[in-house]
Amino acid sequence: MKINYNSIGKIPPVHEGKLREDHVRPTGRYVDGTLVLKLYHMAANMPKKRDLNCKGRELQSLILDKRHKGEIESYSGMGFAVSTENISDILVWNGKDLWLKIYSNNVYKGNREITREKSPITDISEIEIYFFEKKAWNQYLNSSRTIKDKKAYLSEIFKK
Predict the structure, then answer these.
(1) Contact, 66 vs 72, CB < 8 A?
(2) Which of 9, 43, 52, 158 could form an SS bridge with 132, CB 3.0 to 4.6 Å?
(3) Which segments of the chain does DSSP mark as H helices, in order?
(4) What is the reported pLDDT for 49?
């Protein structure tokens, strides 16, 4: 079958395919006895610093709640989480594998786990964070995995 290039790849101009500097910000860390996650917030219109700190605390609360319920495993003890207005992705490394839990941020229905069949798999901004984190994790895996190496991984924060 011949490809009709005029009927594919139609993307509205609002989707530029570029990550603007103000679309992603680190919001701190989640830390408990066996898990440390780097936290990020993504938004088309990034909230002011005070509200951004609140987003970080909301994500920490969600992770703490899901950890207490046994929904999030420690695996390697390190990873990252990305929140938007609608979804929070919590990702924990297990060797070379990245384990993902996705939660809806619906205040009316509660923070419930969702499957990707009900939402897009990811967007350009998230892919850039994932790629950055993958690269940082590979550096850790190829290190001696000392405390110094753990600190180096955890201090590597995505900044655009």
Answers:
(1) yes
(2) 158
(3) 49-68, 124-141, 147-155
(4) 85
- Tokens encoding 130: 């994932």
More confident call, 12 vs 59: 59
Please state, in angstroms and rounded to a whole number, the distance separating the CA atoms of residues 89 and 39.
10
DSSP secondary structure letter of residue 11: -
Length of the chain: 160
Q: Give the list of residues 6+ apart from residue 74 with CB closer than 8 angstroms, or none.
A: 34, 35, 92
Rounded distance, CA 78 to CA 111, Å?
Answer: 22
Token duo for residue 94: 């297990």
Running DSSP on this structure, what letter comes out for residue 41?
E
Of 127, 131, 156, the closest CA to residue 18 belongs to: 127
**Cα–Cα dist 158/130, whole Å:** 9
- Which of 118, 88, 116 lies closest to 103 in space, CA to CA? 88
